[in-house]
Design brief:
alpha+beta, 24% strand, 205 residues, globular, 6-stranded antiparallel β-sheet
Length: 205
């Protein structure tokens, strides 16, 4: 039987927000995703939904083209974890369920703001990238401490035994035109405002 793997992809996203996060945390990577294949054609995480809406995010299916911006290429680190057929089935079912209600998930900006203080603000169906990846790993039975705070840097150190690649992100076979499509000026403001209002509503539940 062919071995199945889950790939955890750490990246230094080549945009201003990514650079700011790396300066604050002092770590080389600011983002983490999961991938289902070695070519990274099926990647999932919590991030901005569109390039021009940095504060409007949620559960997204990522493209490698996100790692190539304005002539800059992200550095990535790929960790490969062997999983069983049962774990693979659990993962597929979980991702399928999340994709079925993708629009209900929000990027947890409130929790992101508390990262320097090693704090997490739990809000229903709202995550930052590292919390999403940790939950995925725990959901399929990868042994991680329940309730522990993990930063991107700490998770990267923990998974170092599984490293299979460190270097520039591969070229995208298909350019993600939807992600990079220009947006009218009101769109980033309105979507961001509505997202924050929804976060505060859920926080009050």
């Amino acid at each position: 039987m062919e071995q199945t793997y889950l790939y955890v992809v750490f990246s230094s996203t080549p945009n201003k927000m990514g650079a700011m996060i790396r300066r604050i945390t002092g770590t080389p990577y600011n983002h983490v995703s999961i991938a289902l294949d070695e070519n990274l054609s099926q990647m999932y995480s919590f991030a901005r939904r569109f390039y021009h809406t940095p504060f409007y995010g949620g559960f997204v299916k990522e493209s490698v083209s996100r790692y190539h911006i304005n002539g800059k290429t992200a550095d990535i680190r790929v960790c490969r974890i062997s999983i069983t057929s049962d774990q693979s089935s659990t993962l597929d079912a979980l991702l399928k369920e999340m994709l079925s209600r993708q629009d209900t998930y929000l990027y947890n900006h409130l929790s992101a703001l508390t990262v320097p203080f090693r704090r997490r603000i739990n809000i229903r169906d709202a995550y930052i990238c590292v919390d999403f990846v940790v939950q995925i790993l725990q959901s399929i039975g990868i042994e991680l401490s329940t309730g522990r705070y993990y930063s991107v840097g700490e998770l990267e150190q923990l998974l170092r035994p599984y490293i299979v690649y460190t270097g520039p992100a591969p070229e995208a076979l298909i350019f993600d035109t939807t992600y990079f499509a220009p947006k009218p000026i009101p769109h980033p403001v309105l979507t961001s405002l509505l997202a924050f209002l929804e976060l505060f509503e859920r926080l009050a539940e």
